[in-house]
């Protein structure tokens, strides 16, 4: 349980990232940036979801869509 967050906590985290001006980037863009092959946004963040539990679709996806 120490590695998971509630939907309410995730919503608060996403709101903070958005308000702080972070830009979400895909993992292939992160890899290109690390290799020096692509741009690295100043306030980049990549979000990952492990294990493929149903709540990633039912709870996280709507929150991600709300926050763009």
Distance between the termini: 27 Å
Could you name the ranges where pLDDT drops below 50 across 5 or more consecutive residues?
none
Strand content: 5-15%
Number of helices: 3
Assembly state: single chain
The averaged pLDDT comes out at 91
Element-by-element helix/strand order: HEHEH
Helix content: 40-55%
Strand order of the largest sheet: 1-2
Q: Globular, elongated, flat, extended or rod-shaped: what is the shape?
A: globular
Instruction: Give me the Rg, rounded.
Output: 13 Å
Tally of strands = 2
Largest sheet: 2 strands, parallel
Structural class: mainly alpha
What would you note in describing this structure?
The protein has 68 residues and is mostly helical. It is built from 3 helices and 2 strands. The protein has a two-stranded parallel sheet with strand order 1-2. α2 (27-34) links the parallel β1 and β2. It is globular and about 35 Å long.
Defining key terms:
2 strands; single chain; mainly alpha; 68 residues; two-stranded parallel sheet; 6% strand
């Amino acid at each position: 349980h120490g590695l998971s967050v509630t939907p309410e906590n995730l919503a608060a985290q996403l709101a903070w990232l958005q308000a702080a001006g972070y830009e979400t980037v895909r993992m292939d863009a992160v890899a290109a940036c690390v290799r020096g092959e692509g741009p690295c946004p100043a306030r980049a963040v990549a979000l990952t979801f492990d294990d493929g539990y149903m709540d990633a679709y039912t709870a996280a996806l709507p929150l991600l869509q709300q926050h763009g």
